[in-house]
Amino acid sequence: MATDRRRDVPLFPLGTVMFPGSRLPLRIFEPRYLAMLRDCLRDGTDFGVCLIQEGKEVGSPAMPADMGCLASIIEWDMPEPDLYHVMTAGTERFRLLTTRVQDDGLLRGDVVTLVPETSVPVPESHSLCVRVLQQLIERVGDAWFPPPHRFEDASWVSYRLAEVLPFDALEKQRMLVANDPLARLDRALHLIRRG
User: Fold this and answer.
1) What is the pTM of this model?
2) Topology, domain 2-114
């Protein structure tokens, strides 16, 4: 499952889960994250987004979950000094091996990126998942779900549903960790039918 790519990345623990292919807007104002963002913009690098297991988004470094998603900066704006509005895109899942805290309070992690899932077709039994996602995309537009839309790909469909359906954060984390897109689709279908 893991590639041989170990990396040292800055970490941004949040109260939300990021998935490969998702968009996540961020408002950055804490000095440690301002410095992280400036470094990422200067060097063209990404950072890791992890669900907080213990602690808070602001203040002392939070304890992150052991799996997260790399975030690439695709747009940014600085409407006032020391405030960035950033749009990020999820790229690869990673497993967190070790963490350390820098002097400025920024959490860094030694991570291993995971091999992207093999494309598996959406089974006919899960066509309702595709229809619900198509309707959502028609309502909110391509800004949140940029093309190409891969409605035939169980991994892409299951990640998109995991990010938008009303799962709690721990369930979203379980869906990020799962290596089976059909299992994610099963969970999404159960929630859709129940709702």
Assistant:
1) 0.91
2) 2.30.130
Domain layout of the chain by residue ranges: 2-114, 124-194
Helix ranges (DSSP H) in the chain: 31-43, 127-140, 154-164, 169-177, 181-194
Helix (H, G, I), strand (E, B) or coil at 173: helix
68 and 112 Cβ atoms separated by less than 8 Å: no
Which whole-number Å values give the CA distances from 106 to 76, 180, 188, in the listed order? 20, 33, 35
**For residue 185, how many C-alpha atoms fall within 13 Å in the half-sphere facing its CB?**
24
CATH number for region 124-194 = 1.10.4060
- Round to whole Å and give the CA distance between 188 and 192: 6
* CB contact at 8 A, 56 and 66: no
**33, 27, 30: which is closest to 12 by C-alpha?**
33
Query: Which of 114, 112, 155, 113 lies closest to 133 in space, CA to CA?
Result: 155
Dump pLDDT digits (tens) for 123-159. 999 999 999 999 999 998 887 888 899 999 999 999 9
Distances (CA, A) of 31 to 34, 105, 161, 192: 5, 9, 34, 41
Distance CA 49, CA 86 (A): 14
